[in-house]
């Protein structure tokens, strides 16, 4: 009504006024259509202008991108790295090699200039630590010290070893480290299907427990270069996890006649050509891996005179394990030699270096570190001479007399680290005499109970770490006390008794081990900082470490003790937990009350900083909370209960 009232039409409407209104409505409709057409035309003109301007802007953006690309190429051409002499670039690569021994594969994949430079430097290829694994993959593992470790399988191609040897020249000493993983029969098919679909995976670090499972699942594939089908790029962080690298990322072998740059300057070394196993056998390729060891060790044995360090570890017996029998010859540069099996295997008579006869002429003048675990060896082999570090774990079926084991020790008077685990021992045939090891600082012995007789023959004046894991028939404290007395009370800071894994063939994890009935010998270990004990009565040990007057003693036992680790030490009385609380209260009194440890004999103990209880006394929630309030680090495998 308001709209109608605003119009200039007379009221009330008549026939003539209605006719005029209809004519006026037609004119208004026509005017609206004209204006709408003008608006649409203006919008169309605007769209054409905007589209034209946008097209112009896009063309300018394309031109700018092209200019930026050319500018980047120009900047790359003018980059300082391109103006470096090849010799200086080689020095830079050498510095990188000192921190990351696996850098050669990465640097060779950057550009053709760097590839030629890397291939011309044999030293960058002197650490054989990376090899194609199952389905042509490589695992590069970087630990805290930036060392690279090889993890491979017997189905991988041995040609990578050949490539490495070719590129290392014929004079550079070799650092060889190979870890062979052999999947179990039950999981080999599943492992094959899973790993065939992945090109990049992650594995856990190689540790003392070895591998019990197959390689883990896959992670995203690595980046590939934008140019052609060249090798893939690999980024290795300083402390990153291990990576699988596709075999396509491994550059092929360099030609025999190559140059660093376009001039007439030859490469810095003559490439040593080793015949490829493809050339040796063109008719068949060992898909099952039964010949991997023979081919790989054929390549390696050709360069044995260049070995400076050789480490080979395998988690279980593999098809070509007899290839190790060919390891015989002179190694004038060899400093460290290790062959380790994670579990016992069946071996026939081997004629390799550790099993050589005493009359055999072997040239190993630089060898100072030797590790043989679950592999055969001869006690009189010339390899057991002038060593500083020796680690031996015998096969379950191999038996050695105590006097022959003592002969090995007496042949190496400069030993600083010694680890002996003998599963089967015989009584001494010849009379034994006291043997002083003037430089031995770390001593670990485990296995057969007759090894206690071996310990009775030793004097270790500078001993700092002692591990006893003997399956003793009698209490071991007398042996330990006499050892400390003969050694004139050495500065022992680490003591472990029956704490390690069972080294016998029974398969029992916890065992009686080196039984201890009296802990009075701890009175002679004032400098002891770490004490590990397994399978011993709980109360006597805890009580003797407590307040002197509580146990009828006149001084603190082990006053410098900071770490206490107990495994399978079951309490025989109900007051076991109470004695533990009393000991902790005496050594770690509540600082909020101003309490200090009791002084006995002018000595106050240092505070415990680390406590571990595995399969020992059952602690309540309140006891665990109280222990954590007194000791910075407390670990207990048994979940606490609330009684």
UniProtKB/TrEMBL annotation:
Region span, Disordered: 1-23, 217-238
Coiled coil: none
Organism superkingdom: Eukaryota
UniProt protein name: Uncharacterized protein
Annotated organism of origin: Phanerochaete carnosa (strain HHB-10118-sp) (White-rot fungus)
Species lineage: Eukaryota, Fungi, Dikarya, Basidiomycota, Agaricomycotina
């Amino acid at each position: 009504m308001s709209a109608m009232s605003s119009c200039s039409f007379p009221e009330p409407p008549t026939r003539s006024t209605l006719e005029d209104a209809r004519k006026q409505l037609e004119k208004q409709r026509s005017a609206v259509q004209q204006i709408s057409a003008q608006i649409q035309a203006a919008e169309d003109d605007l769209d054409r202008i905007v589209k034209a301007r946008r097209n112009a802007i896009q063309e300018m953006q394309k031109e700018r991108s092209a200019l930026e690309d050319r500018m980047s190429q120009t900047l790359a051409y003018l980059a300082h790295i391109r103006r470096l002499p090849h010799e200086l670039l080689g020095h830079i690569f050498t510095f990188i090699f000192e921190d990351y021994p696996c850098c050669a594969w990465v640097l060779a994949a950057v550009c053709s200039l760097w590839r030629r430079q890397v291939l011309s430097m044999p030293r960058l290829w002197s650490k054989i630590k990376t090899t194609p694994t199952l389905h042509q993959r490589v695992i590069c593992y970087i630990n805290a010290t930036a060392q690279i470790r090889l993890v491979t399988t017997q189905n991988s191609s041995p040609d990578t070893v050949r490539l490495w040897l070719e590129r290392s020249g014929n004079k550079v000493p070799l650092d060889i480290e190979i870890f062979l993983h052999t999947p179990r029969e039950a999981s080999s098919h599943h492992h094959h299907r899973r790993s065939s679909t992945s090109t990049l995976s992650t594995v856990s670090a190689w540790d003392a427990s070895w591998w019990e499972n197959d390689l883990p699942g896959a992670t995203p594939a690595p980046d590939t270069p934008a140019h052609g089908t060249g090798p893939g790029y690999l980024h290795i962080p300083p402390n990153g996890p291990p990576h699988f690298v596709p075999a396509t990322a491994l550059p092929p072998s360099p030609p025999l006649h190559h140059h660093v740059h376009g001039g007439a300057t030859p490469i810095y070394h003559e490439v040593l050509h080793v015949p490829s196993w493809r050339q040796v056998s063109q008719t068949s390729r060992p898909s099952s891996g039964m010949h991997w060891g023979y081919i790989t060790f054929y390549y390696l044995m050709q360069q044995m005179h260049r070995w400076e360090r050789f480490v080979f570890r395998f988690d279980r017996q593999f098809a070509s394990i007899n290839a190790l029998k060919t390891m015989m010859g002179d190694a004038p540069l060899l400093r460290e030699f290790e062959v380790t099996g994670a579990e016992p295997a069946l071996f026939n008579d081997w004629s390799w270096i550790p099993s050589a006869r005493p009359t055999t002429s072997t040239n190993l003048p630089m060898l100072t570190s030797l590790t043989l675990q679950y592999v055969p060896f001869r006690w009189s082999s010339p390899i057991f001479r002038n060593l500083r570090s020796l680690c031996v774990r015998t096969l379950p079926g191999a038996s050695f007399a105590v006097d022959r084991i003592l002969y090995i020790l007496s042949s190496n008077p400069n030993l600083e680290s010694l680890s002996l685990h003998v599963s089967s021992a015989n009584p001494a045939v010849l009379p034994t005499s006291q043997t002083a090891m003037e430089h031995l600082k770390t001593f670990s012995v485990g296995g057969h109970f007759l090894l206690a007789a071996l310990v009775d023959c030793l004097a270790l004046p500078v001993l700092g770490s002692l591990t006893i894991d003997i399956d003793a028939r009698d209490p071991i404290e007398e042996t330990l006390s006499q050892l400390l007395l003969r050694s004139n009370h050495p500065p022992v800071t680490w003591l472990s008794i029956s704490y390690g894994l069972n080294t016998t063939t029974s398969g029992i994890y916890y065992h009686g081990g080196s039984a201890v009935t009296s802990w009075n010998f701890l009175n002679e270990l004032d400098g002891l900082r770490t004490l590990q004990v397994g399978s011993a009565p709980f109360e006597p040990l805890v009580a003797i470490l407590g307040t002197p007057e509580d146990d009828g003693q006149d001084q603190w036992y082990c006053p410098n003790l900071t770490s206490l680790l107990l495994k399978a030490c079951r309490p025989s009385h109900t007051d076991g937990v109470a004695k533990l609380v009393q000991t902790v209260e005496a050594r770690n009194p509540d600082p909020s009350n101003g309490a200090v440890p009791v002084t006995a004999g002018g000595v106050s103990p240092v505070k415990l900083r680390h406590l571990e209880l595995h399969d020992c006394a059952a602690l309540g929630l309140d006891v665990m909370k109280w222990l954590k309030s007194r000791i910075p680090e407390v670990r207990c495998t048994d979940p606490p209960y609330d009684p």
